[in-house]
Task: structure prediction
Amino acid sequence: MKVATAAYNLDWIESWAQYEDKLDRWVSGAAGQGAELLVFPEYGAMELSTLDGAEVAGDLERSIRVVSDRMEEAQALHQRLAQAHNVYILGASAPVVDGPGRPVNRATFYAPNGRLDHQDKQIMTRFEREDWDIAPGGPLKLFDTALGKIGVLICYDSEFPLLGRALSEADLILVPSCTEALAGYWRVRIGAMSRALENQCVSVMASLVGNNDWSEAVDMNTGTGGIFGPPDKCFPPTGVLAEGTLNKPGWTYADVDLSAIAEVRADGHVLNRAHWAEQSPRVDSVTLSTL
Result:
């Protein structure tokens, strides 16, 4: 399959038609290059808050609410695009109010047959906890698709090995991200590459890029798209299948061969995925006397 992952910049949206045109350009552009799986980043849906004006877009709580209110309409748009272009799409995540509690950070996954489901973020960053008060959502899911088994670890989730291990049956792990600084980008990238290493699979990182003075939430963003595998047989020695240019909007593409994933899992130079259970939880405390 060919995978397309986005370095996605937010725009000030004056009308819903403008947003439809933007998404259509992005999706049709990737599909026109032969991509079958398209990955958008974390919190890319926050540009929808601009439809309610600068005062709302610049307010943390009000921007959450108006974006959540528009997600049903956004889902319908993504469904149409996935069907029209015969592609799978992981839509940009959004804060979603789902029930009486606090909003969750949710990315919706769309199939070309019109079906959809979602993945909620599991572990919140300090900004999400302390400023936004975003709540952990539902459990991790494994999506069984015509392109293989696909899991999603939203941004910070990719930095936790046990979450990655829960998706050990996934052929691909999608990592939509939103990182303010270069250090944050590299934390997520290292997490995405580590999950590809230990699960002997392919991870696909998408990034929000660009500065947005109108928002307190997504005002500064650093990153690029990247597609990673284990540095082993059938894959590049660096583990990097493809990477974009830092902070440059656009798609990054890579061809992914499921047979290569199966081969490295069965007969790689190392067998990280198979040897996971051999890790010992025992730690001995040793005191060294000062000479």
In short: Residues 182-199 form the longest helix (18 residues). The chain has a mean pLDDT of 96. The helical segments are 16-32, 54-57, 60-69, 71-85, 126-132, 161-166, 182-199, 258-267. The two ends are 61 Å apart (CA to CA).
